[in-house]
Every structure is written in structure tokens, then in C-alpha cells.
Write a structure and sequence with these properties.
327 residues; 8-stranded parallel beta sheet; 3-stranded antiparallel beta sheet; 35% helix; globular
């Protein structure tokens, strides 16, 4: 049966400017895909990867280039050969997962071979701000199990100390978004360990991470920017302990699951992340999260608005998506 593909854009306002080492954002712009077939429709939402040069316009153009093929009928595996990894493929892949789940009357995680899914504990992100504001925000989030701290090249240790004062019991991920040198990492890691930091996410430039090879640090290090697909694993296995899999980078849940199993087979540990986005963007990532030790799926918490029937968050615990939302 031939389907009907609708593609649109949507802008989510953020609760506050989201500041990381690369810059600041006040809104989150996404593409939304709706694929109808018969009585059912599947949804997908994607942000894309801005540091790969992706824009709303480039993602829309990619989808339009294969519209006829998608409407004629395409499988998730076939989609992998039609578009490169990125936001456009992610949105289409998510819609195909959702559509198949609705047509077959099962949940998406069952299609992925996961018999029983559970709610997920996510980190909640504190963007770059003044030292005093780091502590204040941490106090507001002190009852959340995991916090993620965005830092830059300067004052990183002071920022983490401030968060630790505000949230003495939370587990911490520190994300420098490539802002440190390897020398800074070696200098800061022992102090970060004393502050009970659990994970250092992409502390150094992905293009200059050879200094991480067999580096003995007191805290595990997670690869983010250098890993998009399975093809990237051989380069990073002796440099990092974790890999952060994001569906916008991998080009959807189908490829992300393949990457996750390959990473585990290579001895890497798993984190699932996001590029902000609403609950429809988080829902397929929650399927992947069932395989991961750490989840960073707080996109809707950073936004001032979300989808109807949105995923609910209770002190960092995400409910499973409802059938009416996705999957």
C-alpha cells in the first residue's frame, strides 16, 4: 500500500539560553516527519547535527530527494542505503519504527528485541553560567539522581565544585564539548575524581585525541563528537571508555542499535544522548536507553513547550512514551 509523507519544521522555545563551549541557543528547531499508510501514521522528530553542517533546509532537501521511494514503500534497512547518517534519516527512521509498531500492534522496543522496557533515569543538564548560578541551579536539582555539567576551557573545576556544593548526592557527568587540551584533562581529572565525577564526556578536541591512547585516568572518558556510526569505532576503542550514541548522529534508531551492539562487542560502555528536541525525538532514544548505563535524554526539560501526551519526567525519571505519542 502506498503511503503519504508529510514533512514540516517546528521551533521549540527554550526555558533559558542553553550555553555550551561552542555557543548559545535560545530555541530548538526540528524537522517533523509524518508517514501515513492506511489507517496508521508514524511520527519522527529530529534536530540534525549542526557541527556537521546540517540545517533544517538541508534535511528537508534530503527527505524530498527520496520522497517517491519512501511513499512507494521502504523498510528501515533499505533506508540506510538511501540517506547518509544524520537528522533526515533519523526522522524518517523514527517514523518507520512508529508506523510498524502501530500496524503490528506491538511496542517499538519489542520490535527491537527488548521484551520489557522500563522507565529511564536521565541526567539533567546545567549549561554554562556563573559559578554562583551553577550552585543555585544544582540546589534546585539536588533531588535528581544524575546531573550533567557543561563547562568550557576556563573555571571548569570551580563550576563542578559549585554543583557539588549544591547537589552533594547527585552523580555527575562533566561535558567540556572538546574545550580542554589533553594536558588540562590530565591535570583536572584527579580533582574531578575527588569531587566524585562519574564520567568525563568529550573533554578534548576529537581531531586531537590521540593523546588519550591508553591514558590512565581516574574517571572514564566518553566519546561523543568522533562517533557517528559503526565505521568510527576502530579509531576510538583505545582512546575512550564510553561512547555517547545520539540518533541524530547515527541516522536513526536502526543504525544506533547496530552501533550499540558493535560498541559493546568492542569493550566500550554505552551512553545515549540527544541534541535537545521534544518527546517524539526522545521516544526512540528511550528504546536504545534500555541497553545503556547512562542516559542524557533531558531535551524536553530544556524546552518551554513539548508535544501533547509528552513523556513525563519526575526528578530525572522518564516515563515510557505512551502509545498515542510514539511506538
Amino acid at each position: 500500500m502506498r503511503g503519504r509523507l508529510d514533512v514540516a519544521t517546528r521551533t521549540w522555545p527554550l526555558r533559558e539560553p542553553f550555553v555550551i563551549s561552542r555557543g548559545a541557543e535560545t530555541v530548538c528547531e526540528v524537522i517533523v516527519v509524518r508517514l501515513e499508510r492506511g489507517a496508521h501514521a508514524g511520527l519522527g522528530e529530529a534536530v540534525g547535527v549542526s557541527y556537521h553542517g546540517e540545517t533544517l533546509q538541508s534535511m528537508l532537501a534530503q527527505i524530498e530527494s527520496i520522497r517517491d521511494t519512501v511513499e512507494a514503500g521502504v523498510s528501515r534497512q533499505e533506508l540506510l542505503g538511501l540517506l547518509p547518517a544524520g537528522g533526515a534519516r533519523n526522522a524518517l527512521d523514527a517514523a518507520l519504527w512508529d508506523l510498524e509498531a502501530k500496524e503490528r500492534g506491538v511496542r517499538a522496543w519489542e520490535l527491537a528485541g527488548i521484551r520489557s522496557a522500563v522507565p529511564i533515569v536521565t541526567t539533567v543538564t546545567i549549561g554554562i553560567r556563573s559559578i554562583e548560578a551553577y550552585e543555585q541551579r544544582a540546589r534546585e536539582l539536588a533531588d535528581h539522581p544524575w546531573l550533567k555539567i557543561k563547562v568550557g576551557a576556563d573555571h571548569s573545576l570551580e563550576a563542578v565544585r559549585a554543583v557539588r556544593r549544591g547537589a552533594p548526592d547527585a552523580r555527575l557527568v562533566v561535558d567540556a564539548n572538546q574545550a580542554w587540551s589533553v594536558a588540562q584533562l590530565i591535570e583536572l581529572a584527579p580533582a574531578m575524581a575527588e569531587l566524585r565525577v562519574d564520567l568525563l564526556e568529550q573533554p578534548v578536541d576529537a581531531a586531537d585525541d590521540v593523546g588519550l591512547v591508553k591514558l590512565d585516568l581516574p574517571i572514564p572518558v566518553c566519546a561523543d563528537e568522533p562517533v557517528n556510526t559503526v565505521a568510527d569505532l576502530p579509531r576510538i576503542v583505545d582512546r575512550y571508555d564510553f561512547v555517547n550514541i545520539k540518533l541524530d548522529k547515527s541516522g536513526g534508531l536502526t543504525a544506533a542499535l547496530e552501533l550499540a551492539h558493535a560498541a559493546l562487542g568492542s569493550g566500550l560502555r554505552l551512553m545515549v544522548g540527544c541534541m535537545v528536541g521534544g518527546s517524539v525525538a526522545m521516544a526512540p532514544a528511550m528504546v536504545l536507553a534500555q541497553l545503556c548505563e547512562i542516559a542524557d535524554l533531558d531535551g524536553p526539560l530544556l524546552q518551554a513547550e513539548d508535544w501533547a501526551q509528552a513523556i513525563s519526567y519526575d526528578r530525572g525519571v522518564m516515563s515510557l512514551p505512551s502509545r498515542s505519542l510514539w511506538g
